[in-house]
Amino acid sequence: MLSPLANAAYRHLFNAQVSALWGTGLATIALGLLAYDLAGAQAGEILGAALAIKMVCYVGVAPIASAIAANVPRKTLLVGLDLVRALVAIALPFVTGRHTGTIKSNRVLRSRLA
Predict the structure, then answer these.
(1) Quick check: 78 and 16 in contact, CB under 8 A?
(2) pTM over the 0.85 mark
(3) Which residues of 97-113 are buried (b: 16+ CB within 10 A; e: fewer)?
(4) Would you call 46 exposed, middle or buried from its count of C-beta atoms within 10 A (0-12, 13-18, 19+)?
């Protein structure tokens, strides 16, 4: 079962994938905790908006990123993107507030439509 890990290239790729998955999981947990810390009972709205923006970015940026990735060495691209993700994760503790204009305007709109 562990025989594929005998291949050094595969072992490095496997370790990199496991590290990236750990980072993604921890970032999701950190985002949820940050939303709760900033908004308390309204954390669901904040987290929902953040995750929706994340999905829109995946769908909207994917075609552009694919075109750029075709012209960049894969290893450089993957390491660079992991560094960017690490910088974003490091910046999370420095977030001190939230932009509530959108949330308040949505509540006003819902109350007027109801």
Answers:
(1) yes
(2) no
(3) ebeeeeeeeeeeeeeee
(4) buried
